[in-house]
Design a protein that fits this description.
Distance between the termini: 134 Å
Shape: elongated
Mean pLDDT: 83
Number of strands: 36
Radius of gyration: 55 Å
């Protein structure tokens, strides 16, 4: 087809480039590359194509190809094409046309083609040498986008092969020298032509401001607007701001500010940014009417000219996209613009009249900024560039002639992303996936999603989503109708995925286009033919739901292009709808670096390489996404946000990202149940834990280490459940040798584990790494050697353990009449170190502490040696050598005969001839294992208590032990004439018709039926009561002590496990039985106690009159009837009643008189203490003394002999208080001497925990006599007493 003729060319005289057109034409004719630098307003963008046409370039002018003219933005390409066509007075498309991504207004015979740099770059795939062009004009090269840098490098490489191609590189501000050197040839650098700037001067005003609480950027902008419109008259203002949010805030502030100014309140305030709807963009380019303030981002810096602009206000900042190589995310941070960008902004005014540019920063700040904006190649991901170069065969990125080579880390990052997508192999060569990705005109990530969707039968859905991600969101959200837009958009939202929201939106849009079905489809419940809306109706429908029709067309165009590419490759779309899993696994393949895992206690997500990102506040989701999600993109603005979110399942990651997972095997260990060595596998994707604690067979990964663990744990330590005979045999042998070690308290008897390991290691083949492989080998080898792997005792022992016999270390120890199991442990510091004896709870109270001190024969020497070593140096020196003395002591003294300390003390005294005392043995210096450890258990073997202090265990568990003993063998009398002796729990009885033996015997069956109801008595009708009885339990004999128990109105018979406890209970029971048989005499006695009421008044601080009467009668019965020996049968009981009946009244009167005397002195002492107002230490001491002497049951609790002395002790208190006022110093001195004596007595009482001790009671009354000696000598003492005498008594008690 013939080219369209070029109309006559004219040049506007007002443009500076018109005056230099001859120079430019001459340079283009003489050089292959020309650099044209012209300031804003010079006319270079529109006039350079006309100069080329005049030179005969372009098809219509006789050239060999088109004149290609690139612009960085689609809107700039279309507007420039329209302006040039208007100047040539030709229809758009005939001579001058344009081609952008979604529009082609270029006829076949045209000469000048305006296009985006991306369009020209895409044509290199089909026309590598760009033979369709004879001239190329690269405009706005200062932007240094990825496309521009790649184009300039590509053009330099093809220039030698296209000598006819002319190239013009131009921009308003440019680093001319760098571009000239880039295109240098044999003739030298490319020529540079500088063209003067705008036709009207622009005044630069510097107006910096300081951010404060009450003054911010918006206030500074308002002040600048007031300055421009007040001082310079009218004119439209263009304000540059960094982003959409700042534009909205500034617009609101300006509207409020101007509403108070009558002249300017009707001014139009218009936003200008890339996401605006077409209608809002059109308003910006319409002139006339009211004054205008246009708030724009940096989209208005370059050839996109806003008409009518007279003034510019420059905030000096912009949102700059930077790719973080560390976090692998794009960051949109607000940064100061470069000097070149600032000059571009200033060049937007001064085109219609003298201009003013107010910069909201100072000149010093301007001069400190870089001259040019960093090229995009230095702040972007290079994955797409590398993929394109690989597919075009352009060699290595490092060798490509970029104007400014990218850093190595950027290249490495690009290869890493391609590796993530599976586009390159380990050698960085294209894979099959990479070659297919290069054919798709999309971001590599989106292309990878489509390829994955092809294999997962989700191609239809992913094509819709991929095309949606390649365009601006079609949903509009106007500033004045945001809430209404959100309501309309809510029907497209999905609960879990914004990707599914795109599909809902696409389906809704397609419904307006109508669908075709079949008549039978209705009967099948499917959709039938639907009505197709007209274009106007469809557009109205879209606008009502705030969906941008222009962007919908772009979306459909990209989808159509992708569909065409898919059809060219022969890929089939899925016939049935894809599931959520199929769609999102496809999306996951391209977004592996954008996975997020939600924090447990916060709203952020942990992303790849340790980054944190948040859900974008504008996310189109009806609910919060789950714990795991993917994001279509991560953008860093005020914080790092994820956009395009969708919930995923973590188990989807491993099949898709298996080549990227870093796996660790942790804690390889032997599992007894599984019979194999298992490790926990942990897999991470860019630092995110995908799965953890996954059990894997370690033998398949590291058989050498697995074999070692198997031998050590399964065979050496015996942690394996198998029926193979050798393992049970070997473990039995090892236990026997270990028992010898514990008994001998040596750890060198059993051979080291390493030797046992070496034994198995030498026997087992290398392929044995688990229980299963071992059993296969063993069954085969056992046929040849039945004793295979059987260890002998000699092989397990380093040497013989001499002296370790059953006699020295018995398995049972007889305590409390029964054989208790003994176990031995050698583990210093362990609670069970030494010998541990298991004592049944029912035998606890009968265990003898004297026997336990002797331990076992094998440990006696060690204990005696430790005791001897604890002595002072002097006696210890006379026992040297200690080992010989200890051996002699063990040999000469029968084992467990008498108290150990007493026996040892006697031997030490005989050898040393020194008065060694019991306290000289420092028990705290003796190692804990040399004291027997007790483990108290119930009848089911459950542990009730443990420890080495037998007295403490008895105090804690004594009551429970007594109950258990009585439940086992309690003596009950049935009340039959034969007077039977019965054991209620065992239902066993002993005939007692004749006088019973003093040591009756009963048998207890191990199986205890229901207990028999206790028999009660009011008279001695139960035959003879033995002092003790034998009870057999499980073949062993227990000793019980029967006693009468006071039940108030009757008595019962119970068996006790301790004679002392039985004696106390028995006396009280006998007293009750006597009272029951002396009812009349006691009634008389109760009414005739002399001076009872008078005594009751003095007794009131202690108790009631009834309690006083009861004590007097109990003591009278005790003294009248219960002298030793106590009655043991009915005859002796009756004889005792007959004997004491006559003296009961006399004894009671004597007791009453003595009680009266005591109470009289007690009352006087109390009054004296109250009136004396003694010092606190004296008052406290006397109060404590009175409390000890005068308890509530002082008549019954005080021995009769000591009760005679109570009045004297109380009189001594009164005399002490009388003397105190005359000589307090003497009292204080005596009290200081007395206090340590009482303190040691109190400590010993606490240690005994209520156990009776006659010698300690004697010491207590000696202290009372010492008080008389100290404070009331005139009352005299029955015997001489002093502190030395008490010290001597105490020493004897401690021996």
């Amino acid at each position: 087809m013939a080219p369209n003729p070029v109309p006559p060319i004219t040049y506007p005289d007002s443009l500076p480039v018109s005056a230099r057109r001859d120079e430019i034409a001459r340079a283009m004719a003489e050089h292959q590359v020309v650099i044209v630098c012209g300031e804003t307003g010079s006319g270079k963008t529109t006039q350079l194509p006309k100069i080329a046409l005049e030179l005969g370039r372009g098809l219509g002018a006789g050239g060999s190809g088109l004149i290609g003219h690139t612009q960085p933005r689609r809107i700039a390409a279309s507007s420039v094409a329209k302006r040039i066509a208007e100047e040539l007075k030709s229809p758009l498309g005939e001579v001058v046309g344009y081609k952008v991504r979604f529009q082609d207004r270029l006829q076949a015979g045209a000469s000048v083609k305006l296009m985006t740099d991306g369009i020209l770059l895409a044509e290199t795939q089909t026309d590598p040498l760009l033979k369709a062009y004879d001239t190329l004009i690269i405009d706005e090269a200062h932007e240094r986008s990825l496309n521009i840098d790649f184009l300039l490098g590509y053009l330099r490489r093809i220039l030698p092969r296209r000598p006819d191609l002319k190239i013009v590189v131009t921009s308003a501000t440019i680093d001319a020298e760098r571009f000239a050197q880039h295109f240098a040839s044999r003739q030298g650098p490319a020529p540079v032509i500088m063209v003067s700037g705008r036709t009207f001067p622009v005044e630069q005003r510097w107006k910096p401001f300081e951010e404060a609480k009450d003054f911010d950027l918006n206030d500074a902008i308002a002040d600048a607007v007031d300055d421009l419109w007040r001082g310079a008259g009218g004119g439209d203002i263009l304000i540059f701001l960094p982003g959409e949010r700042e534009i909205r805030e500034a617009a609101d502030h300006l509207r409020k500010h101007l509403s108070h100014q009558p002249l300017h309140r009707h001014a139009d305030i218009l936003p200008l940014f890339a996401r605006l709807s077409q209608a809002e963009q059109d308003r910006v380019f319409e002139t006339g009417g009211a004054k205008r303030i246009v708030l724009a981002t940096n989209v208005a810096e370059t050839s996109l000219t806003v008409p009518g602009i007279r003034y510019v206000i420059d905030a000096g900042t912009a949102r700059v996209k930077r790719y973080s190589y560390r976090n692998k995310v794009e960051q949109l941070q607000v940064e100061p613009v470069s000097q070149a960008a600032a000059n571009q902004r200033a060049g937007r005014c001064g085109r219609v009249a003298n201009g003013i540019c107010i910069r909201l920063y100072d000149e010093k700040d301007f001069q400190s900024r870089p001259r040019f904006t960093d090229p995009e190649i230095l702040r972007s991901s290079l994955a797409g560039v590398i993929l394109r170069m690989k597919s075009l065969g352009l060699g290595l990125v490092e060798d490509f002639p970029f104007i400014e080579p990218p850093p190595r880390k950027a290249i490495a990052d690009g290869y890493a992303l391609l590796g993530e997508l599976g586009a390159v192999d380990e050698a960085n060569e294209l894979t099959a996936i990479g070659r297919e990705l290069a054919k798709l005109p999309l971001d590599p990530r989106v292309g990878r999603m489509i390829l994955e969707a092809r294999s997962r039968e989700a191609l239809h859905e992913v094509l819709v989503i991929a095309s949606a991600l390649s365009v601006q969101d079609v949903r509009d959200r106007p500033l004045e109708a945001q809430q209404a837009a959100d309501e309309k958009h809510r029907k497209f939202d999905d609960e879990r995925s914004e990707f599914m929201g795109y599909l809902k939106l696409w389906k809704w849009i397609e419904e307006g286009r109508g669908s075709h079905g079949h008549a039978d489809a209705a009967r099948a419940g499917q959709k039938v033919d639907t009505h197709k809306l007209s274009n106007r109706q469809q557009e109205q429908r879209l606008r009502e739901s705030f969906v941008n029709p222009r962007r919908v067309r772009e979306w459909r165009d990209i989808h159509s292009q992708l569909h065409t590419v898919v059809a060219e490759h022969g890929w089939r779309l899925n016939g049935t709808p894809a599931t959520y899993e199929q769609v999102h696994q496809s999306m996951l393949a391209g977004l592996l670096g954008n996975i997020g895992c939600k924090a447990d206690d916060d709203e952020w997500y942990l992303g790849a390489r340790g980054i944190k990102f948040w859900r974008h506040p504008g996310a189109h989701l009806s609910k919060k996404p789950g714990r795991w999600l993917i994001a279509a993109e991560l953008v860093d603005t005020t914080r790092l946000f994820g956009r395009g979110l969708a919930a995923i399942e973590p188990q989807w990651i491993e099949p898709i990202a298996g080549h990227l997972l870093k796996k660790q095997l942790l804690e390889p260990h032997w599992e007894k149940k599984a019979g194999e060595v298992v490790a926990f596998e942990r897999a991470t994707l860019y630092g995110i834990v995908v799965y953890n604690q996954r059990r894997v067979n370690f033998g398949n990964v590291d058989p050498v280490a697995a074999r070692e663990i198997f031998i050590r744990e399964a065979l050496v330590n015996g942690e394996w459940e198998t029926r193979l005979p050798f393992l049970a045999h070997n473990q039995k042998m090892i236990r026997q040798v270990e028992e010898l070690e514990h008994k001998s308290r040596r750890q060198d008897v059993l051979v080291d584990e390493h030797l046992i390991f070496a034994y198995y290691d030498a026997q087992l083949p290398q392929e044995v790494v688990s229980g299963a492989s071992f059993e296969r080998w063993y069954r085969h080898e056992q046929k040849l050697n039945p004793k295979l792997l059987h260890l002998t005792r000699d092989e397990l022992m380093r040497h013989e353990a001499a002296g370790i016999t059953t006699a020295a270390f018995p398995k049972t120890i007889r305590l409390g009449g029964i054989d208790c199991t003994a176990t031995y442990l050698h583990a210093p510091g362990d609670a069970k170190d030494g010998v541990t004896v298991t004592v049944p709870i029912y035998a606890l109270n009968q265990v003898s502490e004297e026997r336990c001190d002797w331990l076992v024969p094998g440990m006696l020497e060690a204990k005696v040696l430790a005791l001897v070593k604890s002595l002072h140096q002097r006696p210890r020196s006379r026992l040297m050598p200690l080992a010989e003395f200890v051996a002699e002591f063990v040999e000469l003294n029968p084992f467990a005969q008498g108290p150990l300390l007493e026996t040892l003390l006697k031997a030490v005294r005989e050898r040393t001839q020194l008065a060694v005392q019991r306290n000289d043995f420092k028990l705290d210096m003796v190692a804990p294992h040399l004291f027997m450890n007790f483990r108290v258990v119930d009848e089911h073997g459950r542990q009730l208590g443990t420890g080495r202090n037998l007295a403490a265990l008895k105090a804690e568990l004594g009551g429970q032990a007594r109950s258990a003993f009585q439940a086992l063998a309690a003596l009950k009398v049935t009340g039959a004439p034969a007077a039977q002796v019965a054991l209620a729990p065992a239902a066993a009885s002993v005939a007692a018709g004749s006088p019973a033996r003093r040591g009756a015997s009963a048998s207890a069956s191990p199986a205890a039926p229901e207990p028999v109801t206790p028999q009660t008595y009011t008279a001695w009708t139960f035959g003879e009561l033995p002092e003790l009885m034998e009870i057999r339990k499980a073949g062993q004999t227990l000793i019980g002590f029967p006693a009468l128990i006071d039940r108030g109105t009757q008595v019962e018979i119970e068996v006790f496990d301790e004679p002392a406890a039985a004696a106390v209970k028995h006396r009280a029971g006998l007293r009750r039985l006597l009272a029951l048989n002396l009812k009349e005499p006691l009634k008389y006695l109760e009414k005739n106690i002399p001076d009872l009421q008078k005594m009751a008044v003095a007794f009131m601080p202690l108790g009631t009159q009834e309690e006083l009467r009861t004590q007097i009668i109990d003591v009278a019965l005790e003294r009248a009837f219960l002298a030793e020996p106590l009655p043991h049968d009915a005859a002796s009981f009756q004889a005792r009643i007959d004997e004491g009946r006559t003296r009961l009244n006399l004894i009671a009167q004597e007791i009453a008189r003595q009680a009266g005397a005591v109470l009289l002195e007690f009352a006087a002492a109390q009054r004296k203490l109250k009136d004396a107002r003694a010092p606190k230490d004296v008052a406290d001491d006397i109060a404590a003394q009175l409390q000890r002497l005068m308890g509530k049951r002082f008549i019954a609790a005080t021995p009769w002999a000591q009760l005679q002395h109570l009045p004297r002790y109380l009189k001594g208190v009164q005399l002490r208080l009388d003397k105190l006022r005359g000589d307090p110093a003497r009292d204080a001195q005596r009290l200081a001497e007395l206090r340590p004596l009482e303190q040691r007595w109190s400590r010993r009482v606490a240690e005994l925990k209520g156990a009776p001790d006659a010698r300690l009671d004697e010491y207590r009354w000696l202290m009372e006599e010492l008080r008389i000696s100290f404070f009331a000598q005139e009352l005299k003492t029955p015997q001489p007493v002093s502190t030395k005498r008490l010290d001597k008594v105490w020493a004897q008690m401690s021996m």
